Amino acid sequence: MTGPVQRLATTSRTLSLAWLALMALTGASAALGEWLEPGAAVQVLVAAILWAKGSLVARRFLESAAMHPFLRRVLAGFIAFSPAVIVLGALFPDALLRLATL
Amino acid sequence: MSPAALNWSPSAAPAAPGRVPGNKGIWVGICCEFVEFLVLFVVYFVARAHYPEAFREGAERLGSGFGLAITAVMVTSSYCLARSVASVRAGALRASRGWLLAALLVALGYPLTKLLEIHWNLAHGIDSGGGIFAATYYYLTINHMVHAGWGILGMLWVALRHLTGGYTAAEHDGLEALASYWHATDIIWLTIFPFFYVLV
Q: Which residues, 6+ apart, have CB-to-CB distance to B53 below 8 Å?
């Protein structure tokens, strides 16, 4: 096996593992919503899974580690925003309601 | 395999410091897309904070299978595009074209699934006049489908270019720009999915 071909095989394996992880995390997220009683703990878990999935796409598919620092920060900020608000709403619903009121 | 392919180094190409995948233009578009959806996410969180019961009941009425199917479609087509980019970098042009066509084929499942979902929703009384939950749900998800539609059109154009020899191991910015846009659109969907199909 030549160098580039071997490297392509390694990259392909990494991408396939990322895809499998994304599918498994999606299934886990749906199962949490379906089978567990709604509550703060479930919302925090769903937020953690959401952050993990977004980070996986950014790191493995978009290769964010090699990106321009500005783009890397934009991606990281966008991916972290919604999970952070979900956690805030789960743990401190009154604080979120105050923030969401004009 | 072309000489360019033999000189290819995965650690050199993607890991160059300060790299802009594809081209700067597509990243201006992606940043605008992120800002647009951040505003919509804020609208979602504000509405949910004020009407938690409406969102709890609304999420229970939706068919979660549709959300799962769209997630599978987005993640899988994203994966196929990443494989297409990895293949073209290695000079494996035929494999790259195959993965790109696979991405396009899988991505077409999105509008099809959305159409079936809307039919199902209307049959179950979930229309745009169904209150704050339905309005937020339709506005966010249809907006995302429009963005995915642009991505599908982009895939058609890039596929045409790729099939006619437009990309090589040394020059494939267009393919990588499209892949970047689609991955960003995938990340947005991964955020929308729990909003309406998981969090009750």
A: none
Domain B20-197 CATH superfamily: Cytochrome c oxidase, subunit III, four-helix bundle (1.20.120.80)
Choose the mutation target among B35, B99, B191, B192 for the interface with A, i.e. most A CBs under 10 Å. B191
CA distance A73 to chain B (A): 11
Listed residue (B79, B150, B75) closest to B111, CA to CA: B150
> Number of folded domains in chain A?
1
Q: What residues of B are in contact with residue A39 (Cβ under 8 Å)?
A: none
Q: Assess B200–A contact: CB distance below 8 Å, yes or no.
A: yes
A82–B86 C-beta distance less than 8 A: no
Q: Does A8 touch chain B (CB under 8 A)?
A: yes
Query: Which of B14, B34, B64 faces A63 most closely, judged by CB atoms?
Result: B14
DSSP single-letter state for residue A66: G
ipTM of the complex: 0.92
Tens of pLDDT, residue by residue, chain B (200 residues): 444 443 444 443 555 668 999 999 999 999 999 999 999 999 999 999 999 999 988 988 898 899 999 999 999 999 999 999 999 999 999 999 999 999 999 999 999 999 999 999 999 988 878 799 999 999 999 999 999 999 999 999 999 999 999 999 999 999 999 999 999 999 999 999 999 999 87
Chain B nearest CA to A33, separation (Å): 5
SS3 B1: coil
- CB spacing of A100 vs B45 below 8 angstroms: yes
| Domain of A25, in residue numbers | 3-99
Question: Where does residue B110 rank: exposed (0-12), middle (13-18), buried (19+ CB within 10 A)?
Answer: buried
The structural domains of chain B, with segments of one domain joined by +, span 20-197
Spatial distance between the Cα atoms of B185 and B150, rounded to a whole number of angstroms: 10
